[in-house]
Each structure stands twice: as structure tokens, then as C-alpha cells.
Amino acid sequence: MEMVSRQPLLDVLSGRRSERTPVWMMRQAGRYLPEYRELRARAGSFLDLALTPEYASEVTLQPLRRFDFDAAIVFSDILIVPHALGQTLSFVAGEGPRLAPAIDAGNLSTLADTLDRDIVARVYEAIARTRAALPKTAALLGFCGAPWTVATYMIAGQGTPDQAPARLLAYRHPDAFGQLVDRLVTASIEYLCGQFEAGADAVQLFDTWAGVLPPEEFARWCVAPAAAIVAGVRARIPNAKIIGFPRGAGMNLVPYLEAVPVNAVSIDWMTRLDYARSELQTRRAVQGNLDPLALRAGGAALDYSVDAIMAALGDGPFIFNLGHGILPDTPVAHVERMLARVRGGR
Amino acid sequence: MEMVSRQPLLDVLSGRRSERTPVWMMRQAGRYLPEYRELRARAGSFLDLALTPEYASEVTLQPLRRFDFDAAIVFSDILIVPHALGQTLSFVAGEGPRLAPAIDAGNLSTLADTLDRDIVARVYEAIARTRAALPKTAALLGFCGAPWTVATYMIAGQGTPDQAPARLLAYRHPDAFGQLVDRLVTASIEYLCGQFEAGADAVQLFDTWAGVLPPEEFARWCVAPAAAIVAGVRARIPNAKIIGFPRGAGMNLVPYLEAVPVNAVSIDWMTRLDYARSELQTRRAVQGNLDPLALRAGGAALDYSVDAIMAALGDGPFIFNLGHGILPDTPVAHVERMLARVRGGR
Prior knowledge:
The structure is a homodimer of 346-residue chains.
Chain A: H1 8-13, H2 34-43, H3 46-51, H4 53-66, E1 71-73, H5 80-84, E2 88-92, E3 96-100, H6 117-133, E4 139-145, H7 147-156, H8 164-172, H9 174-198, E5 202-207, H10 215-236, E6 242-246, H11 253-259, E7 264-266, H12 273-280, E8 285-290, H13 292-297, H14 299-313, E9 318-322, H15 332-344
Parallel strand pairs in A: 1-4, 4-5, 5-6, 6-7, 7-8, 8-9
Antiparallel strand pairs in A: 2-3
């Protein structure tokens, strides 16, 4: 019997000492890889790629073939949940996602009560296929968008620079907005449990737009729903490993960790490393936080940034990652350089 | 002899107890006012409005005629400085500002050494006209953009969602980027001194995009230049009153205040009020921080937000303001409600 998991990422999430600092990158299955662009061109639309299990699984595995990463993250999209609740999701080339019809206080009841089985089963199948093909030493991550962030798209019908439509609805109709968030909490619990049951080793909760909210709104619309999701998932899967990413939370990261029992917190590149070490890593494992633009820039800026992160956080429970998704025009050679630098550092 | 200034805003900036909590709003001279829209339509372009002293002065005075504000801020734009250094500034309807040619590591030397006198003299004349017409109890504010924020537009040639072009140049060519920042520090000192000499009672330094930088880059490109500007202005005008606004600085606000001897710090709506009270107001006067969307939403959300700010900060050295500029579609009645609520609170 092997008592050590030999999955460095799961070791960190389980509070065990890992053999090496685990590394993966947000959006590591993506456009900066020529093999991704090739498959993307064959698949048709982005949605066809994400919702065809053999394609999604293949794209998920691509970065692991090229780089010595410690985790794969299933290729999918945070808007699969609203899509599976009845909003029509489409991706307009060069303009990003569209959800129709937009949700407001008057049409909340048009959303389905449960996730469309046909849609989410495709994601679960992609996870099962990927887990079967993935080396045992690599962890497989599932994910979903956090309710606040998903709601910003559902209400605007698209991405918005300042998330004003959702923030305005939350100010004007907090009860209706709360009902939408509650609906998303329930759906997220179901969806994440389904991902675990399909073979995910851990999941990440992406709250990409957490940073635009005032502290009390952040507590209400980001912290409380995240705590409810973690509790709901663990009621079904007691030892579920969950990483929280309230991007832009800044000085609200400690209140977040005090209320949300995630196994690790992912931090953006604006977070101070001394704060992450003294206030966050003392409470939970930390993941992050290389500036994606430092990775894109390469050279001395990249080396310096990697070294600073490893010096501050490398000795504690730590997962090396970016502070946000890799940029599409990042040279592959820069990823190799980053990885060599992290491995050399420990 | 009157020893009390009877300008509540200057009292706060001078460390005196003010008769009432001073109030003004960022972008208070702007599109939410029908009288602004009327004059804007007559003036021609936005730039014609800003650079014609009688128009700029009139627009500056408009909100003071309507609301019992304690300060006017000269109607201008943070991109006047690059315009006066030789970049051609234009405003494309519905798309925002354009600066041409874009600046990169290779064409820095095309910028002028000093500000074009004809351009900045128009701003100074607008200030002189406004000060002459403004009630003595109201303060007149000048302003400029901080070097980092201004550089993001100079390098991209326009606004960008993530300020990537400037951040990338700073990573790849820190020496060239530093030369641009030094140039802007010198120009900002000259420009702010000119505004004081024309009649400004205080000035604000807007670092709108400070929040996208990692902490060490923030220290290098936001904190150090702000400190140099404050020192440079005070070398010529010893008691110059200066408000700093490093928007999005979050947990970097204390390091900012430790290094930059501004008289007050303006905070955005994401800043925790308990932190502002315990960590910032103990060091300097604080200005802020109503969410412009709470003002736009009105009703209970507005009342609650105003009350929370006044309860946390109203007893200390404090200037009531928004956390960023007022949104163009904000009803005038909401501004009246906000003002009544602040006045009722003290």
C-alpha cells in the first residue's frame, strides 16, 4: 500500500509535504499552443470544442504532453452553467461570449431548476476520458465560475468592462439578485459534485470579477456563496479538495479565508508577497501569482518575478501558477523557461 | 484678521478642524448635467471645450451653481500633458481619446522637453477665470494624471482594458520606460506649479491605473514618481496642498502614504472602511469613497452607503467624494439626495 499520493498538487491541498512545488497554469489549454489552434480550427466553434468530449479531453491533455506540469484542468468554460440552466450560449469571433436572453429581475423564473443533463454530461465525459489518459502523478482539476462572476455575464448577456449591469441589479433589487445567486449556488454544487464523481481530483472556483465589489457586497455576493458551495459539495463528497480564486480581493482575502474553508487560495499578481506569506499561507495553501505579462515579456522580468515568488512562498504550502490566465500571444519558450526556473528553485 | 480659512476642504488638507465635512465629486463637471451637455454641443469637440478658457471655466462652475459643493475642479483632461509634449490628442466620439504617434522605446526623443506654453496657458487661464468667479468658501482644485497612468495612454495611443502595452514596455525596457516617467515627473511639476500660480487652491494627482501593477512595479512606477512630484512642487510652492489618488492600490495604500507626503489620499470604493479608518486616516486625511454605481442606483443602496462612509470616516479628517468619477447616466436627484444625506450626517 502506497500512503503517499505521489500527486504533488493533491499533497499540497491535503496538507502533506509535497515532493516538489506543483506547477500548472490557468488557461494552460489554450491559444498560445499551436496544437490547440490546429484542433480549434478543426472543431468548428469554441462551444463545439468544449462540449465534444473527445476534443475537450484532447485539448486538456495537450499542455501535459509538452510541459512537466502537475495538473491538467478540464477544457471548458465558466458559462456552461448558465447554458445548462437555459440561457443560449454562443461565442462571437473576436467579441467573446453571448448569453441570451439576458437575465433581469423580471425573467429569473425562465431559468431551469436543474442543469441540463445532456450538456453537463459532456463535461463529465471529458473529465472521465482525461483522467483515464492522464499520468497518475498529475492531478485533474475541474472548475466552475463563482455565482457573482457568472451572474455578471447572465445579467449583461456578455462580458462588460466594469460589471455595471450586475452591480446595478444587486443594488436596486437585492432580493431578486439574491435569488439568482442562490440558484447558482445550488447549480454549482451539483455541477462540481458531478465533476468529482466523473474523476476530478480537485476543483477551482473562479470568481474573476470579485475585485469590483465594495467590501460588504463582496462579503454578501462572493464570500457567502463560496462558503455555501464548499459546504454543499462536502456534504456529498466529504474530503473534496477545493481551490478558491476571488480575483482582485486584495485586503479582503483574509476575511474570505476566515469564512470559506477552501484548501487553497489562488492569488492575483497584485497581491503583496509579504502579505501572502504572513497572512494567507499561515491559514491555507497559496496558489499563484506570476503576472501573465511578465511571462509574456520573458527575459529578466520573468526570471526576477519567478524568483521573488519562490523566495517568498516556495517553502510553505504552495502551488506555482499565474495570477490570471496565460495570454494567447505568450511564446511557448517562455513557459519552458518559467518551468525550469521553478524546478531549479527547489 | 480671519485666522480660519472658511474653506472646509482647505481646512481638512491643512490639518485644521473643518466647519463641515467638505464634499465634491470626481467628474462633477460632466455629462450627467443637462447644462454641460448643452454647452458641450455648442463648443464642438471635447478638446475645444477643455482648451477654450471661457468654456472650461463655465463648465467648471456649473455644478457649484446647482449643488452646495465645497470645491470646483477645473474642467480639463489628464492627457493635456502628453498633448503639450507633442503627441496629437483627439477624441473619437464613442471611442475615447487617441494620442498619436504612440510612444515606444525608439521614439521617446520626439517628445518636447517642455510643455507647449500655448496649450497649458489655456488651462491656467481657465483656472484664473474660475477662481475669480467662485465663492471664497469653495476651493478650486487643479489636477494632473500621474506618470504611470498618463504613460499607459501615451504608449498604447489610446485607452486599453488592461494597460498591457505600457506594462509590457516597462517589463522589457525598464530604462526607456523610466526615462518616459522621468519626463512626465518633470512636466507634471511644471504643470501643477502653473496651476497653483494661476489660482488653484490644491491639486489632485490621478493614478487611475495604479491597481494593475504588481507591488514592486507599483513602488517603482507609482510611488516614487508621486513622491518626486510632491517634492518638486513643494520646492517651488512650499505649502502646496496635494491629494493623491492611486486607484486600486488596496493593501499598497499604506506604503504609498509612508513614501508620498500628500495631504490627503483619495480611496476607491473597494477599500475597506475599517482599514481606511485605522490605517489611513491615522496617517493623513482621507477622501472618498462612495461607489459611483450606488449613486447611480439611488434609493436604499445609496442611503446605506453614504451612512456607512460617514459613520466610519466622518469624525476624522475627511472629504466626502466618490470612489471614482460620477457616471454619465446618474440622475441629478441622486446627487441632491447624497448631498442632503452627508450634510444631515454632521
